[in-house]
């Protein structure tokens, strides 16, 4: 599978051989065998914080809650229930200023909302009763030659955040890292967490000084530290509930020491996204490789439209919602570029 995103607003250059990029499950050692009988939501219906707090409260003998205490319990429970317990997420991905970096840059916010609504209905028809929430997935930090980064203007980003707040749409902001430290890249996005619909993402492919020539990577320790920094910020700034952090992967080199990644943070949900374009068979093989990382149980899946850009990769044919939901384990965030 070839590198799939452009580092400019005008051209996507495939420069690596498919044989290097494809992930073949048959030749990769298993980390574990996924439990096909696992519940739809893998674990942590509530975060550890609320469970421990409830146990402590319930251990108090002959205690009757006051009205204020009961309201606090209900509020804390609401904040601690994972958004993904009963909802899937459907997102349009891209850069607002580029027609060549995804579907998001080809339409107005209002048009994207209408298109997402129609596509979400197709997914809800085969979701088994789960709701499908809409999302804008914006490239916030775009990699340039020599690993430099272009940052999305605040006023442009805020148009999507404000529209999302008014119309019940989530916003993911994604940093391609480049030559910079991934934790520093994450910290640049943290202030946007004050908006309740905002979540974050890092794309290891572009953590390099030679974009389009080599595939970048992050380490397990960096992913753990990113979650810790994000959770500390959430707690220190009294931000309620959980927030998601998406990590993209379509090649084995993109996450080093993957088996060591932890996902046991109370306020951060790590999402492991299967990226990359190709035929349904190639995409299923890539997803099967990611599924072996059972230490990152909450999965995501990305699809690529044929936007008619010379040299750009795309899915052929595009998988249907039913085919996407048939992946094992079932993905919780589905995005279209």
Structure explained in plain terms:
The structure is a single chain. With 337 residues, this protein is of the alpha/beta class. The chain has 2 domains: 48-81, no CATH class; 88-336, TIM Barrel (Alpha-Beta Barrel), CATH 3.20.20. Helix content is 30%, strand content 18%. The protein has helices spanning 18-21, 48-58, 67-80, 109-124, 154-167, 182-189, 220-236, 280-291, 321-325, and strands spanning 87-94, 131-143, 149-151, 170-175, 198-202, 218-219, 243-249, 255-256, 268-274, 299-303, 333-336. The strands form 2 sheets. It has an 8-stranded parallel beta barrel with strand order 1-2-4-5-7-9-10-11, surrounded by 5 helices. α6 runs parallel beside α7 (220-236). Mean pLDDT is 85; it is low at 1-40.
Q: In a nutshell, what does this entry contain?
A:
The chain is of the alpha/beta class and 337 residues long.
């Amino acid at each position: 599978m070839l590198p799939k995103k452009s580092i400019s607003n005008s051209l996507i250059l495939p420069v690596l051989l498919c044989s290097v990029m494809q992930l073949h499950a048959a030749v990769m050692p298993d980390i574990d065998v996924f439990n096909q009988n696992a519940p739809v939501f893998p674990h942590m219906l509530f975060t550890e914080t609320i469970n421990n707090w409830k146990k402590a409260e319930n251990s108090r003998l002959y205690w009757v809650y006051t009205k204020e205490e009961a309201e606090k319990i209900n509020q804390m429970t609401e904040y601690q229930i994972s958004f993904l317990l009963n909802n899937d997420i459907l997102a349009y991905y891209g850069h607002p200023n580029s027609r060549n970096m995804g579907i998001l840059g080809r339409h107005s916010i209002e048009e994207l909302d209408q298109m997402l609504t129609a596509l979400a209905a197709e997914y809800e028809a085969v979701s088994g009763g789960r709701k499908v929430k809409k999302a804008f997935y914006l490239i916030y930090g775009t990699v340039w030659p020599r690993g430099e980064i272009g940052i999305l203007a605040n006023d442009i980003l805020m148009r999507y955040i404000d529209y999302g707040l008014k119309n019940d749409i989530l916003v993911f902001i994604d940093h391609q890292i480049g030559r910079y430290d991934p934790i520093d890249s994450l910290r640049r996005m943290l202030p946007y967490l004050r908006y309740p619909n905002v979540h974050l993402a890092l794309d290891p492919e572009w953590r390099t000084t030679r974009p389009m020539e080599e595939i970048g990577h992050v380490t397990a320790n960096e992913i753990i530290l990113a979650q810790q920094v994000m959770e500390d910020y959430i707690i220190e700034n009294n931000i309620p509930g959980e927030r998601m952090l998406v990590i993209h992967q379509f090649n084995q080199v993109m996450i080093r020491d993957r088996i060591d990644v932890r996902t046991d943070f109370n306020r951060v949900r790590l999402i492991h996204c299967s990226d990359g374009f190709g035929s349904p068979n190639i995409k299923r093989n890539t997803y099967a490789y990611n599924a072996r990382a059972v230490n990152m149980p909450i999965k995501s899946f990305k699809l690529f439209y044929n936007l008619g850009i010379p040299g750009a990769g795309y899915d052929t044919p595009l998988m249907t919602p039913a085919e996407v939901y048939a992946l094992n384990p079932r993905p919780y965030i589905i995005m279209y570029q």
